[in-house]
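User: Could you go from structure to sequence for me? I need the amino acid at each position, not a summary. Structure tokens:
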């Protein structure tokens, strides 16, 4: 497994991973465009990928403008290998090197993702309605 900073050239594979997930799926894959990905990778924040045999199998992107985790997704066949935790930690290490602001994220309630984040030290702060989905908002301050 190779972990590295995401590049613009990775967007096509990042989109493939994003649209392969079974939870927290997009109702319409066009809701997240390649231009959105480019903006989050180059203007608003930074991203990282995990590659296996030159194939991106997971990625994470953090947004410094809104102080949130924009994305953390792993291809289903590569789950439960520690990839998500490693990307999570790389992303938060970088984030808290840039700012001391708390970071938040939204995820669907009662999902494996919510359990993952809670186990990783995130705290529930309330519900947020986004595109008519009530997302569970979690927050972290500092890295532990």
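Assistant: Here is the amino acid at each position, in order:
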């Amino acid at each position: 497994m190779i972990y590295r900073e995401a590049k613009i050239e990775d967007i096509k594979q990042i989109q493939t991973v994003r649209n392969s997930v079974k939870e927290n799926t997009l109702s319409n894959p066009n809701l997240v465009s390649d231009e959105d990905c480019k903006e989050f990778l180059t203007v608003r924040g930074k991203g990282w990928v995990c590659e296996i045999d030159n194939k991106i199998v997971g990625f994470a992107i953090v947004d410094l403008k809104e102080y949130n985790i924009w994305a953390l997704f792993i291809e289903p066949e590569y789950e439960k290998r520690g990839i998500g935790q490693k990307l999570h930690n790389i992303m938060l290490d970088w984030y808290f090197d840039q700012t001391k602001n708390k970071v938040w994220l939204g995820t669907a309630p009662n999902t494996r993702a919510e359990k993952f984040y809670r186990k990783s030290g995130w705290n529930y702060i309330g519900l947020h309605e986004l595109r008519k989905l009530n997302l569970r908002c979690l927050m972290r301050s500092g890295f532990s």
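One structural detail worth keeping in mind: The helical segments are 11-18, 34-44, 83-98, 112-119.
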